[in-house]
Amino acid sequence: MKNAKPDTTLVHAGRNPHANHGIVNPPVYHCSTVLFPTVQALEDADKRPYDGVRYGRAGTPTSFAFEDSVAALEGGHRAVSMGSGLSAITTVLTAFTKAGDHVLVTDSVYGPTRRFCTDVLGAYGVETEFYDPLIGGGIARLLRPNTTVVYLESPGSLTFEVQDVPAIAAVAKAAGATVLMDNTWATPLFFRPFDHGVDVSIHAATKYLVGHADAMMGVAVCTEECFVPVKRTANILGACAGPDDLYLALRGMRTLSVRLKRHQESALILADWLAARPEVARVLHPGRPGDPGHALWKRDFLGASGLFAALLHPVPKPALTAMLDHMELFGMGYSWGGFESLILPTKPGHARTATRWDESGPLIRLHAGLEDPDDLIRDLERGFDRMRAAL
Fold first, then answer.
1. What is the CATH number of domain 6-253?
2. What is the pTM of this model?
3. Residue 277 contacts by C-beta under 8 Å, 6 or more apart in sequence?
4. For domain 256-390, is the CATH number 1.10.3730.10?
5. Pairing between strand 218-222 and 78-82?
6. Could you report the per-residue pLDDT of 104-135, keeping only the tens digit for each?
7. Which residues belong to the signal peptide in this entry (predicted)?
8. Which residues are catalytic?
């Protein structure tokens, strides 16, 4: 349906029951070899390397269904699915860089993205410069004639800075750079990157799109101009997604809207409660009034997800450990975006070069899952009790 609202698109995009014996969900194709009945059919397929089923790695009806769903939801031209969020990130960066290029990457970027830029792209002659995520249009002073990519992530990983995406994108595109953005936190529902000048929107679909902590998936949604470079690079690198993970991602997407609303609601309840605690110095959540990024968030975003952070007042490590080691509902793990609540101590100062993180207290990242927020608050309250007892 043309001009359908996002909730409707989530339910209907990427599936055609009447083409599959009336079955509601697209079938799962486990495929490596594709057979062609004639030489002519084989040659015709080779002339269309990015369309149709010609080899399992290059795409199947299952991967096309997922890609069509995400592209329709986010408003991009086409999408490319890959086996993890990091695979999507590294593939897209590889597609738009070559030896001698200069790349600008936000200093608040996801840690593995930083390591790929410095350790892998750097080894192949691509220079990465990290910039202050709050630079806005001032990024113009960092652009060079050989700057080919400007990479954004908003809000920033661990510290949740909100970038002025339209200002950065306008300056970057005027200089001929390709604008890439990690949009995992907001998902296509809560931030519309193509409306703000982004060329490729990257998602660790492992998080909210899958939503059930049971599959690894990455996807890059592209403008028409950027689709072929990304798809070609993914094919060359063998960056494909498995059929069962694609199925789980498609299943998860159908409930994305209702899940995100609950994640948002619970996270704001927890954030407000934490902000009033004496153990907490400040809460890092752009959806809360008073947060440094709130004005930009309110201008550009359509909602907030369940991931945020709380900066605690300085405490000895044993006291923090006493709090975190015995949580009942909050698991301790690195991923997020599933139905379960998570808590994680982080150290953002270890991965900054353009900006500084000088806070002396511990920073804990929280993901509000789908449990009752009152129960989550009780779990946190008991954790703070353990912390005080250990002082």
1. 3.40.640.10
2. 0.94
3. 384
4. no
5. antiparallel
6. 999 999 999 999 999 999 999 999 999 999 99
7. none
8. 57, 110, 182, 207
